[in-house]
TrEMBL record:
Gene3D superfamilies: Cytosolic phospholipase A2 catalytic domain
PANTHER family in the cross-refs: NEUROPATHY TARGET ESTERASE/SWISS CHEESE D.MELANOGASTER, SLR0060 PROTEIN
Alphabetical UniProt keywords: Hydrolase, Lipid degradation, Lipid metabolism
Source organism per UniProt: Stieleria varia
Active site: 69 (nucleophile), 238 (proton acceptor)
Pfam families on file: Patatin (PF01734)
GO molecular function: hydrolase activity
Keyword hit for Lipid metabolism: yes
Motif (DGA/G): 238-240
Tagged with keyword Lipid metabolism: yes
Name of protein: Patatin-like phospholipase
Length: 392
């Protein structure tokens, strides 16, 4: 959330350069919201941010919600239920507790990764298939076509990474696309499957697969890999492997970019595991940490140089840096403890879930009111946290 000054730091004017995307020739004067990965921790942190964005009247103004991994769970639930929200004349929705908070907290009260891994190793069904089945408790038989009409609501883009092409795969109501293969209009992929692919973190939860019909592709979008098996089956891994903040589509199209980052801070290990599985995970954590740091640096540089408007808040942020006298209290020792929540799809006590939601609420409030207050209809400070437990 704070923006450190460093005159010697390299400035990167165009951090994202993938050839195929729905890239606009000029930036749209709209708002994009990016929801990062980070397991249940990020999923709940984003819930708190969305609650505050709704109170500030910004949620209704958002044109695009781009998500990866744990952020895609939250985005998927919000998108599936968007049409059921009732917005008042101030752009504030009622029903957020019932339609977003309660289903997310129910999921966070269940461990799904350990059981999926054990069953996936023991039986023929893959781990990712088991995870997708668990997500059906949230999404049922809803598909990408159950996301809201993009002419009157935000476009929800769920991102995954292709293990085959190394590219970002975007899944929305309008399209499913890999620029090296092509684009399918109005895909009927199950939301549980799309979110499962977006959150298929390697090595244990990856890969996920989506079966395709080559005849469904728009011939005018065929890429250099429009051929079997690429146009018959997508083999996917966590969206955060390619873009762990969900920035790609947002950056290329919108003038205002808001980023909610629930990714944890990598901790030092004196004796890293030597077995291949856990050592591989540690290596992936190192890579993720470096890529996340680079993306964040590029994003903050774009704010400084006025290439983009917007703001960033993270689970590791320090709201004291915003110099907002009426910010909700967020002592460093308490926020550091929340940020240390493991990146898992593992049951969390209700009290801890509430703390994470409260922190997402407070962090987003401080960032929005100090950096993009012109977008806010009423910038009055929140009187309290959503939950009385606060951050402690």
């Amino acid at each position: 959330m704070s923006i450190e000054s460093d005159s010697n730091r390299e400035q990167i004017s165009e951090p994202f350069s993938e050839p195929f995307s729905e890239r606009a020739s000029t930036l749209q004067d709209g708002i994009a919201l990016c929801l990062s990965g980070g397991g249940y921790r990020a999923m709940l942190f984003h819930v708190g941010a969305l609650l505050r964005l709704n109170e500030l009247g910004i949620l209704k103004q958002i044109d695009l919600i781009s998500s990866v991994s744990g952020g895609s769970i939250t985005a998927g639930v919000l998108g599936m239920n968007w049409s059921k929200l009732a917005f008042d004349c101030h752009g504030r929705a009622t029903g957020m507790e019932r339609l977003l908070v309660e289903p997310i907290m129910r999921l966070a009260s269940t461990t799904i990764d350990r059981r999926a891994i054990l069953l996936g190793l023991s039986f023929r069904a893959s781990v990712s298939v088991r995870i997708a089945r668990c997500y059906r408790s949230l999404f049922g038989q809803s598909t990408l076509q159950d996301l809201p009409d993009e002419s009157i609501a935000p476009r929800f883009v769920i991102n995954a990474t292709s293990v085959q092409t190394g590219s970002l795969v975007r899944m929305s109501r309008s399209y499913l696309a890999d620029y090296r293969v092509g684009l399918i209009h109005h895909p009927d992929v199950l939301l549980s499957q799309a979110v499962g692919a977006s959150s298929a973190f390697p090595p244990f939860l990856s890969p996920a697969t989506i079966e395709l019909n080559p005849e469904d592709f728009d011939p005018g979008t065929a890429g250099d890999l429009f051929c079997p098996p690429f146009n018959q089956r997508m083999v996917l891994t966590d969206g955060g492997v390619y873009d762990n903040l969900g920035l790609e589509t947002a950056w290329k199209n919108y003038s205002t970019v808001l980023v909610s980052d629930g990714g944890g801070k990598m901790q030092p290990h004196e004796r890293p595991a030597a077995n291949w599985a856990f050592h591989s995970k540690r290596i992936l954590d190192v890579i993720d940490n470096q890529v996340r740091s680079l993306r964040k640096r590029q994003l903050l540089d774009s704010y400084r140089s006025c290439q983009r408007e917007g703001t960033y808040w993270g689970i590791g942020s320090n709201t004291h840096n915003e110099r907002l006298p009426d910010a909700l209290p967020a002592p460093d020792d308490l926020t550091v403890a929340i940020a240390a929540t493991p990146t898992r799809l593992k049951k969390l006590p209700e009290s801890h879930q509430q703390r994470i939601i409260n922190w997402g609420y407070a962090a987003s409030d401080a960032a929005i009111r100090s950096r993009v207050s012109e977008r806010v209809a009423d910038d009055s400070p929140p009187p309290r946290f959503p939950y009385a437990i606060g951050l402690g």
